[in-house]
Design brief:
single chain; mainly alpha; Serine Threonine Protein Phosphatase 5, Tetratricopeptide repeat; globular
């Protein structure tokens, strides 16, 4: 699969007709092209989360909608885009994810269209579970473990014993779900030239 498919172009045009540049950017970031989401679309979405008039629920819901696609490529890119915004975007985005009663429902996802589809389906199910746990952890703790201050004066070292006892099982579960999926698959299949810096947000 090289280049945008006709389906990608139609979807982008539909969002353009509705006047939603943000939804169109989500569509552009999650095309059927077997490559990482383009940097310009990720940067646009991250920037959008910092504007006062952005509709965060619409952005998240569009990503959830893209994650229901039958293609592993589209679903994977929807997860990567969501993850990228969680880490680099305004905190309001993950706050919204944490407020939802349901997130990615991909426990039974499978793409039967080719060998990569089978290989990536397992990875996608695990990746979705990690993102769900990440949002759940935020709901429990009211902060993102990956974004808080670290070191001697870090959050985990200065919080009360009661909160630490509450937080440790939550952090352990998030770490366990992170270790369940192999980030190297992203390197081997989607973007062979990916650098360690680009994977640091995991």
């Amino acid at each position: 699969m090289s280049g945008q498919t006709l389906t990608d172009r139609i979807a982008a045009a539909q969002y353009q007709l509705t006047g939603s540049d943000m939804a169109r950017a989500v569509c552009k970031a999650t095309t059927h092209e077997v490559m990482a989401p383009k940097k310009k679309h990720l940067e646009y979405l991250v920037s959008a989360t910092n504007t006062t008039n952005v509709n965060i629920p619409q952005m998240a819901d569009t990503l959830f909608e893209r994650s229901t696609n039958a293609s592993w490529v589209v679903v994977f890119k929807a997860l990567v885009t969501t993850h990228h915004i969680c880490v680099h975007g305004n905190e309001r985005f993950i706050q919204y994810l944490a407020s939802r009663t349901s997130l990615f429902n991909l426990s039974n996802f499978i793409d039967k269209t080719g060998s990569h589809g089978y290989d990536m389906s397992t990875f996608i199910r695990r990746y979705a579970r990690y993102l769900n746990e990440k949002a759940f952890a935020y709901r429990q703790m009211a902060f993102d473990f990956t974004r808080v201050k670290k070191g001697a004066e870090g959050v985990m070292r200065t919080m009360t014993t009661e909160k630490l006892l509450k937080g440790m099982p939550v952090l352990q579960t998030q770490i366990d779900t992170l270790l369940e999926f192999d980030v190297c698959i992203y390197i081997l299949i989607v973007k062979p030239a990916v650098s360690s810096t680009e994977l640091s947000f995991y």
